[in-house]
Specification:
By secondary structure, this protein is mainly α. Helices cover about 80% and strands about 0% of the residues.
Length: about 240
């Protein structure tokens, strides 16, 4: 309580100087009510308040409107939402879905460009779902990539925030278990099958050779994924230099 009261003075002074006292009063009241009632969901309220304030700012609107138009107008937002909501069993499950939208339906990327996007999604921290950020970059630059990633990761965070305390009860439900018993093997098959459209996107013979060597290293020699990715990247750069 004391910490909050101590912060009111500076906030009020700044609000007076910028002529936005009603806005500050409203936001303080909203934050207080949220903290007292919604508990762990308070962070969502804070993010919503910050986003709304950013949108109200005219300079922010003029700067971010083209990015929002690119993401929502092109259909990228719907693709990102599907990617985030349907990644059951692992990110590779949604690779064919993402490839279908990015390459076949909307032509944001070529097949080889999408293959590179998947590679970037693999070498960056986080799940392969991060590939959607590269797809977003192809649609509208850095801003569109960041917004697409935000949209894609929102469902998983909401699932955890809303359903974390219900997961164990769900797993004890006979119908839920029956559904998972059917969906899990299909998801495994989808992960294995996702390699087919990616392999078909290879353009050069040396890429096929690196693919075969990487498969041997991973499946036979049991080398680590990061190690194989780095070595394959070096080999690919060397091969591209020689072929060029």
């Amino acid at each position: 309580m004391r910490a909050g009261l101590d912060l009111i003075g500076p906030s009020w002074q700044r609000a007076t100087e910028e002529r936005r006292r009603p806005k500050v009063i409203t936001l303080i009241a909203l934050g207080a009510v949220a903290a007292a009632t919604v508990g762990p969901y308070l962070v969502l309220v804070l993010l919503a308040c910050g986003t709304a304030s950013l949108a109200i700012n005219r300079r922010a609107v003029s700067a971010y409107a083209p990015i929002a138009a690119a993401v929502f107008g092109s259909g990228l937002a719907w693709t990102a939402l599907k990617v985030g909501a349907l990644s059951y069993g692992g990110g590779f499950v949604i690779i064919p879905l993402m490839q279908g939208d990015a390459v076949d339906a909307h032509h944001w990327m070529t097949g080889s460009e999408f293959l590179n996007a998947v590679a970037l999604g693999q070498v960056t921290p986080g799940p392969v779902t991060q590939t959607i950020a590269v797809v977003g970059y192809a649609v509208g630059g850095v801003g569109a990539g960041l917004l697409a990633a935000l949209i894609a990761f929102t469902p998983s965070f909401l699932f955890i925030l809303v359903g974390a305390d219900r997961f164990h009860a769900l797993l004890r439900n006979r119908d839920a278990r029956a559904f998972l018993d059917g969906a899990a093997p299909a998801a495994l098959g989808a992960i294995l099958g996702s390699a087919v459209p990616l392999a078909l996107a290879l353009d050069h013979g040396w890429q096929v050779a690196i693919l075969a060597a990487a498969a041997v290293a991973l499946l036979v020699a049991r080398r680590g994924v990061v190690e194989v990715l780095l070595l394959a990247g070096v080999a690919g750069a060397f091969a591209e230099t020689l072929s060029g």
